[in-house]
From TrEMBL:
Gene Ontology BP term (one): IRE1-mediated unfolded protein response
Protein name as catalogued: Kinase-like domain-containing protein
A single cellular component GO annotation: IRE1-TRAF2-ASK1 complex
Lineage start: Eukaryota, Fungi, Dikarya, Basidiomycota, Agaricomycotina
Alphabetical list of PANTHER family matching this protein: IRE1-RELATED (PTHR13954), NON-SPECIFIC SERINE_THREONINE PROTEIN KINASE (PTHR13954:SF6)
Kinase keyword on record: yes
Length: 268
């Protein structure tokens, strides 16, 4: 199976693709499984298109899909979750909970675990840790995690993917010291981020590093999710050393000495 995640960020589109996967049968014929979201609901459909690129916006608009039950997509609302009131301010980014829908109950557990970490961190905020504002509630479900928006990821900046007028000020030493400060804070709480890579480091308007994406974050000694290929040793246990390894590669990445190519620990 060829799997591609294609997340749309265009808010004007009523339907946004969550993922497209292409599978082949024994006769060599392929089909596409397309998962999309519309108005906080998630649908799946199967297409006879033989190539991923043939499933365009028109095909998505015309698609008829099967609805995922909400209990298979979203965590149940809990009273210990901070509820975010709407409408949301323009400086708020919403991480939609459906991003884990393909992982079933395991995905829902990951979302719940991330919320627990963010709720705990919000009582003791740190300037190099993403700012959490609460979650969006729809009926009895948690459908989105509300976080502060930042300028760009470190990966986008280093790879030249940010227009000049949208770039944050960039000083390598400031960024590296910011990541170190955020990690030291987490480790002091007995937590390991466990997925430190340039995609999970953002820069704010002043050019300071902000660590994001806490769905892998867990307590020291707990089971590890393995991290991101190219930026991790694929560990089985969450340890401070996992974050230190990721940080060392980020330093090399900033210096132009590493490009995320070592995926051998993942057997890729």
């Amino acid at each position: 199976m060829i799997f591609a995640v294609v997340s749309s960020t265009n808010p004007t589109k009523a339907r946004q693709i969550v993922s497209i996967s292409e599978s082949f049968n024994d006769d060599g014929f392929s089909k596409l499984e397309v998962v999309w979201t519309e108005n906080s609901q998630v649908f799946v459909t199967y297409s006879s298109h033989h190539r991923l690129k043939q499933f365009d916006d028109h095909a998505l608009f015309e698609a008829q899909g099967t609805l995922f039950p909400k209990e298979k997509v979203y965590p149940s609302w809990r009273e210990n979750i901070t509820e975010m009131q709407r409408p949301l301010a323009s400086n708020i980014y919403t991480k939609m909970a459906y991003c884990q829908c393909l992982n079933g109950e395991a995905g829902i557990r990951l979302i719940d675990a991330e919320i627990d970490v963010l709720e705990a961190l919000s009582t003791n905020p740190h300037p190099n840790i993403v700012e959490y504002h609460g979650c969006i509630r729809e009926e009895d479900y948690m459908v989105g995690i509300c976080l502060s928006k930042y300028r760009c990821t470190l990966n986008e900046l280093i790879r030249g993917q940010v227009p000049p007028d949208q770039r944050s000020p960039f000083d390598p030493d400031t960024v590296i010291s910011g990541v170190m400060s955020g990690l030291t804070f987490l480790h002091g709480l007995g937590l390991v981020h466990d997925d430190i890579n340039p995609h999970n480091i953002m820069l704010n308007d002043e050019g300071h590093a902000v660590i994001i994406d806490f769905d892998s974050c867990t307590h020291v000694g707990a089971e590890s999710r393995g991290g991101t290929p190219g930026w991790s040793t694929n560990p089985t246990i969450a340890q401070v050393e996992n974050d230190e390894y990721g940080l060392d590669l980020i330093v090399q990445f900033i210096r132009g000495e590493y490009n995320g190519e070592n995926v051998e620990p993942f057997g890729l």
